[in-house]
Amino acid sequence: MFPPAPSGAATGSNDVPSFSAWLPAALPEFTHHWTHLRYVRSQLADVSLGTCDRLAVGYPPQHGKTRNITVPYPLWRMLLTPGLRVGVITHSQRYANKVSRWTRTVARRQGLAFGTVSKQDEWELSNGSTYLARGVGGMIAGEPLDLCVLDDPFGSREDADSATIQEKVYEYYMDDLTPRLQKGAAIIIIHARWNPGDLIGRILESEEGPEWRYVRLPAIAEEGDPLGRSVGDALCEGRFPLAKLEQKRRIEGIGFESLYQQNPIPRGGSFFRRDWFGSPVDASAVPADTKWVRYWDLAASRSDSACYTAGVLVGKSGSGETTRVWFGDVVRGRWSPADRNDVLLQTAIADATRPGFQRTWFEKPVFDKDGAASRAVVAKLAGYQVGPDNVGGHGSKELRAEPLASAAKAGIVRLVAGPWNGAFLTEYEGFPRAQWKDQVDSGSGGYNKLSRPQGGMSINGKAV
Fold it and tell me: Which of 77, 62, 243, 223 shows the shortest CA–CA distance to 148?
């Protein structure tokens, strides 16, 4: 049933080889020889030997975490140590059940005998080892554990950025999960580093932090790489070539630093940095073939306490290594709806004379529940290329700003010198904690449209 154990393999049973030897036979359809996978297995070997009982791994997505660790390792340990009590925890019960089914499938393919307990979220092997699958928050009282694998406790970036959910996950770890760990038990936590306040971050900053072994695996190597890679090397060239990772970095922005580099960037103060934009340049420095859009963030009041309406002119020139992003102009103020629409029209008339100008976009405002305000803007700008942008399903303002933040950090964004520069940079530097976000919404909206062009939207089922 199993390949022979390599010479000197430390096992708890003569029938069970080392994890590295067993894995290719258990999951032959997957690749197991990549360097980062071998490195993680070396860390798991210390867990198996009892020399490490607290292991945290910052791991980029789609690099083999689930199929090389979360599914096979608990099963192998159940074979290695009869009577072992295993718990696998994920962000939701639904996903925990899926991981449980995957693990049982591997067990069946290996011809393993099951015990009498056979539920979707709880089962056992005939040797007395038990498996428990739970989502964060799921009932675990009265379930002693000898090994716990906590894989992706956050289901999304927005969850990981939520202080409420951060606290919920940490309280579950402290109050529900930790008390279930028996004497000599080990716990492994694996997830992408979404936010400084995520579970790994909270644990490392706590009093128990020194007790943990933390392994950080960035998708693109940095100084002091644990695998010995040269700076700039891909973590797994066979899975994600460096060119593909660099493309993701350009598109996904600060999210790439967290999700792929395991370098969570705190919100506010460092989301945008003033020096990333360099010194403003003269308009003559902008290439003649630059493509432009104007993107508006609309407000509905002229009150001094109201939000601003802002329209940012965003340009893009070049491609690949020569790509540059330009902020050419900002129109910003507080106007009544009628006056605001007049300003939009006058700006559209002026923009239409600009070489390379493509389209005026505006974000469908939150106050526009029935679409009447959007239709009024489209009617006002009749004869000009205009497109409403429904960002309701595109995540938070922070998520929408990440691609632009990444481009700015890469040093490819410049401002055309103008009287609006100061207020513009101040707002970006304070985002998202500053009171006003209209210029960030407009600038990131324009950048996203130039980077990933989309069509318009429908209002009440009708195209506008």
Answer: 77
Within this chain, do residues 126 and 254 fall inside the same structural domain, yes or no? yes
> Is 96 found in the same domain as 240?
yes
Identify whether the C-beta of residue 56 lies closer than 8 Å to the C-beta of residue 214: yes
SS3 content of the chain, % helix, strand, coil (to 5): 40, 20, 40
The pTM (predicted TM-score) of the whole model is 0.60
Q: What is the pLDDT of residues 132-150, one digit of tens each?
A: 999 998 888 788 999 999 9
CATH code of 81's domain: 3.40.50.300
Q: CA 91 from chain center: how many Å?
A: 14
Condensed to tens digits (0 to 9), the pLDDT of residues 411-424 reads 999 999 998 988 88
Best CA proximity match to 166, nearest among 137, 194, 197: 197
Q: Packing angle between helix 337-351 and helix 372-380, nearest 10 degrees?
A: 40
Q: How many CB atoms lie within 10 A of CB 32?
A: 17
Domain membership of residue 75 (yes or no) is yes
Q: Which two tokens stand for residue 140?
A: 């675990």
